[in-house]
Amino acid sequence: MAAPEFQDYYKTLGVPRTATQAEIKKAFRKLARESHPDKHAGDKLAESRFKAINEANAVLSDAAKRAKYDQFGKDWEAYARAGASGGADPFGGANPFASWGASPGGATGRPGSGGVRYEFRTTGGAPAGAAFSDFFHMMFGDEGAAAGEPERFAGGGNESIDELLSRLGMAGNAGAGTRTGGRTHAGARPVAAPPVEVTAEMSLEESFHGTSRIVEIDGKRLEVTIPRGAGDGSRIKLTGKAPGGRDLVVVTKLRPHAVFTRRGDDLEREVPVTLQEALLGGEVPVATLKGRVLLKVPEATQPGRVIRLKGQGMPRFKGDGTGDLLVRVRVVLPSNLSDEAKAAAQRLAELVDQPDPRG
Hints:
Elements: H1 9-13, H2 21-34, H3 44-60, H4 63-72, H5 76-84, E1 120-121, H6 134-140, H7 161-167, E2 177-179, E3 184-185, E4 196-202, H8 204-209, E5 211-217, E6 220-226, E7 235-238, E8 248-254, E9 261-263, E10 266-274, H9 275-280, E11 282-287, E12 292-297, E13 306-309, E14 325-332, H10 339-351
Helix pairs in contact: 2-3
């Protein structure tokens, strides 16, 4: 069998060898969208291109694989021959080509030498090289593909690269397979079942103090603790707690409150004050979720003024600390004035030098 052809992964993604991880990811996502097989139905070249892009990303997005690829690159075959011929091991005992060229009976030979049989098989019968090339397997052995969350991208549905390759009859990101006379390659990473999501409604007071809910799924009852500070749309994940070992995700929904409005970790409310308190200042009792506090109203406070009470808001759902309470002042004017009160008000208006607010 001829030696696998060297692949320039940087050229495949169209990035320089000095590219950052962010640049590599950006290039991969762009090319994956352009070459998505769903956009090129029946185009085998597009499928092949998509596979090559995925392979290049699997190497260059993984720091360890990228370092090995940068070190040996196009010279990998020479190092493979050096290791197979019994010379000094240039890999320091970690030669990824050590078993390449081994026949089913244990004989070894140089890559590409006559009579040496080398093939890939998968447990499902599809060629392992369908997902990643022979060069990838020679270069990285059992390492498989880059670990982490499956890459998803817009323009081709919400499936991951692994899921798409599997649908196309390819082996997926891990390139699962065994090879005759050699080691077994790592199996394809199974696609995790989607989590089970349930919604839990709660009051603002329950969000402030923390609460719990009983969730029933397929006849199974689970008590879920909802931490302090959980808000509208907060997600609490319970790994493996749903039927079948799936993850359970509880999404919280906050009911409207009669007094307070939540804005992130801050709370807002309105407090009415008298004309005297607005004009001359004073201390006004204000109810918070922690208890009652005194709000200092400065003299000449205008209607609609917002006064911030530090630390009287919501506890943070993730992290330490507490938000603030923003109090909006609403000035309530006296009504049903007596003649004497009207005269006093007229006298006050004459004494106060107030500019025209509409000017």
